[in-house]
Amino acid sequence: MDRAQSDYSIYRQVVSQLMEGQEQLPSLPSITLEIRCALRADDVSLSGLARLISRDPALSALLMKYASSALLRVRRPPRTLLEVLNVLGLEQVDRVTMAHSVKSLFTLHSAGHKKLFLEAWERLVLKASTAAFLARVIGHVHPEHALLASLLSEVGTLGVLSAFKGEIDAPTRELYYGLCREYSKSLGVIMLKKWAVDEEYIEVIRHTGNWHERVCAEVQLTDLVNLSLYHAIKEMNPLAQLPPLQSLAAYEKLLPPLDFISDNGELTLLVSHQAEIHAIADALR
């Protein structure tokens, strides 16, 4: 066995141990659980919810930023948390809260961990923003629903980093992505079940990256996620080995002019609105 194979075997064992001992997996922050509980209460008041959210300054800032983002196109940006809640509504607040929590769950142990995390997070943010934009243009799915589903669809990719704590060095980029290909889906399902999120998000994990899977004729949540994943990969790595866009099951559901393809093999719709998609992404960074 050569050195690379030996290293991979060691890292595989570490990730396998993490999956077997689920108590070691990242848990949602207590403030997130409180907010989600309050959002589901029959007697929830916006003023009380605003006070609760204000206990998390980072989440408060993100909600303010998101409510003023290019995705919502509000005429007058909200100035208070109470105004933010009125603009977004409870379901959107819940989704943005979950998106914020995902990023905050993963402790960065070293420069190596941080580099891997930031690269993965940047791709996830770009993918989620693309999904939200497509949802708004195509319809069928609420943009914030598509955004959160896209983020959660690869939470296992971030979860793999949770295995490397203490004295364990971060793997090389090649080893990390090899581990993600092998474990990220299973790990993501375990994590979402632990967090008690809707089953629909778990189903998206199972079908993400299945380019040619045909389930129904209408554009579904998974289709938006897969189209977004495809374009995020192409933007982050133009040399990535991907099938032609027109061969994707999700693409076949698009109607003209949404299905127009640019010279670089991407949806013209996304190429022409790249600045808007990146503006949405800025609200999540």
UniProtKB/TrEMBL annotation:
InterPro entries from the UniProt entry: HDOD (IPR013976), RNase_Y/CdgJ (IPR052340)
TM region positions: none
HDOD domain residues: 25-211
Pfam families for the chain: HDOD (PF08668)
SUPFAM superfamilies (alphabetical): HD-domain/PDEase-like (SSF109604)
Coiled coil: none
Protein name according to UniProt: HD-like signal output (HDOD) protein
